[in-house]
Design brief:
One of its GO terms (biological process) is ribosome biogenesis. It is found in: Nucleus, Nucleolus. It is built from 25 helices and 8 strands. By secondary structure, it is α/β, with parallel strands linked by helices. It folds into 3 domains: 158 residues, Nucleotidyltransferase, domain 5 (2-Layer Sandwich), CATH 3.30.420; 119 residues, Helix Hairpins; 122 residues, Serum Albumin, Chain A, Domain 1 (Orthogonal Bundle), CATH 1.10.246. The strands form 2 sheets. A 5-stranded mixed sheet has the order 3-2-1-4-5, sandwiched between helices. The protein has a 3-stranded antiparallel sheet with strand order 6-7-8, with no helix packed on it. α6 links the parallel β4 and β5. The protein is elongated. The relative contact order is 0.06. The C terminus is likely disordered.
């Protein structure tokens, strides 16, 4: 005989149900699917045995976290111990559960035979549909409220939302910054072509797009320029000689005349391009501030813009921290990598990190070395930023100094400092900045306040130091040190020992 029970986890509590005629039900799965929809037929199949409600919202959250991680909570263990009958030779008890990990944990901890899939899924679907009618005192409205409250609590604890460490804003900002660069460049070229019909000499005198749009808006009709306009031109171009050249060119320009309505449209479009360029500067300052909050070490090492591009390309700071240094090195050069692998050619040496100042300053023969070393330091910086609770740019500054020393080593041969020395110095500065005090003499090792012995490894991480095993105390024996022998006596002593061994 087999007793088949069902375990159902609800936001309001645990429910234990018994299934009638389990052998016939397992053989007639289509009929079970039809009976699930009707409460009268479903009551003939399933009967509620016990219901253990949660005492509070915090208790419900704790149980939900335990179930999601495949851990048997004490409340669930108490319910099964009191309500689930024990198995015997004549009567075997099987428990149907929805989660495979929870079933394995129940079988391991309590020795209960569990079953998942098949008819269990259909039966639990029916229990979920008619749960508020199976439990007395529970309505559909109260069950929905319990599920909503528990869902909010679970999501809030799962996400651990921190508005100051959101990298989504960095991803959107760097994407918008790239789009603005393209749009401003396109619009500026349109202004140059449009206004160039009226004042073609201005294109040769002014190369910057932003300055050109400001001048086009300020000048308007070139025939109206006079000595009174010279001061305004100097404020825009920041050069008195260039301002005078613009004034002289306007008087002898070969451009065509322009109608007032065309000039109004050109000035309106130039004003919008100038406002976009000003907004781009504001957005770049915002990106710099967000990078200093979210990833200060990565920003200090490789720059705010390149660091934001790495985070955006990886998808998040957490994904970037998971990447090895070899992946970070060629991040952004996937097409070249796959093309090289397909043609069996040389793989690329760098991707997005090529835009950093280090690779640009390195010698051609050292670019690959510097890119590999820089990718290693970027990986360390991103992991520190991702998993540190209090952000600080101390490690980023030290890692940047290490890259500078490595570049000097390749150029002059001066050996750089050891990594352990740099990490010790960085940790001491972090302690000074954050006010973290670690006991013990020196940073090489010490004792934490909880009494655990710690020591410093090469990567700058504190690890527990192995405590020496206790040995039994031996009685102290006083020994008399023999007088030193002369060389002749020492030789004779050796000869005596050899004779004794030969005998």
């Amino acid at each position: 005989m087999v007793l088949f029970h069902l375990l159902f986890e609800h936001a309001s509590g645990y429910a234990l149900l018994v299934v009638k005629e389990v052998e016939e039900i397992s053989m007639l799965l289509p009929q079970v699917e039809e009976c699930v929809q009707v409460i009268g037929k479903f009551n003939n199949i399933v009967k509620l045995v016990a219901f253990s409600p949660f005492k509070s919202a915090q208790s419900a959250l704790d149980n939900m976290n335990a179930v999601s991680e495949g851990i048997v909570h004490e409340d669930l263990k108490l319910l099964l111990d009191t309500s689930l009958p024990a198995s015997s030779k004549k009567r075997k008890v099987t428990l149907g559960v929805a989660d495979t990990k929870l079933g394995a944990a129940l079988q391991e901890d309590l020795g209960i035979q569990c079953q998942t899939g098949g008819v269990v899924v259909e039966l639990l679907r029916g229990v979920r549909l008619h749960f508020h009618t199976l439990v007395q005192g529970l309505t559909a409205v109260s069950a929905a409220k319990a599920q909503l409250g528990l869902g909010h609590s679970y999501s809030r604890a799962k996400v651990k939302f921190n508005v100051n460490r959101v990298d989504n804003m960095i991803i959107q900002s760097i994407s918008l910054l790239d789009q603005l660069d393209k749009d401003i460049n396109t619009f500026s070229m349109r202004v140059r072509e449009w206004y160039g019909y009226h004042f073609p000499e201005l294109i040769k005198l002014v190369g910057d797009n932003h300055t050109y749009c400001r001048l086009a808006r300020h000048i308007g009709n070139r025939k109206l320029l006079s000595e009174a306009s010279l001061e305004g031109l100097e404020e825009i171009v920041m050069d008195s000689g260039k301002a005078q050249a613009i004034l002289d060119a306007s008087r002898s320009s070969m451009g065509m005349d322009i109608s007032p309505i065309d000039l109004i449209n050109i000035e309106s479009f130039s004003r919008r391009v100038v406002s976009l360029a000003e907004y781009r500067q504001t957005l770049q300052e915002y990106l710099r501030s967000r990078m200093n909050q979210v990833a200060p070490n990565l920003a200090a090492l490789i720059g705010e813009v390149v660091g934001a591009r790495l985070i955006s390309h990886a998808g998040s700071l957490t994904n970037l921290a998971k990447y090895p240094a070899s992946t970070v090195q060629i991040l952004g050069a996937e097409k070249a990598l796959f093309r090289a692998l397909k043609s069996k050619g040389n793989t690329p040496k760098y991707g997005l990190i090529y835009h950093s100042t280090f690779i640009g300053r390195a010698a051609p023969k050292n670019k690959g070395r510097i890119s590999r070393y820089l990718a290693n330091k970027c990986t360390i910086a991103s992991r520190i930023d991702c998993f540190s609770e209090l952000p600080s740019s101390v490690f980023g500054d030290k890692l940047k100094d290490q890259v500078e020393e490595r570049m000097a080593f390749y150029e002059t041969g001066e050996p750089p400092r050891k990594n352990i020395d740099v990490m010790k110095e960085a940790m001491s500065e972090v302690r000074a900045v954050l006010g973290v005090v670690v006991g013990g003499s020196g940073w090489g090792g010490g004792v934490r306040p909880d009494g655990e012995q710690v020591k410093m490894e090469e990567n700058g991480v504190l690890v527990p130091e192995a405590t020496p095993s206790k040995k039994r105390k031996k009685h102290s024996v006083t020994t008399v040190s023999p007088e030193p022998l002369t060389p002749m006596e020492a030789v004779s002593e050796k000869k005596k020992k050899k004779k004794v061994k030969s005998q």
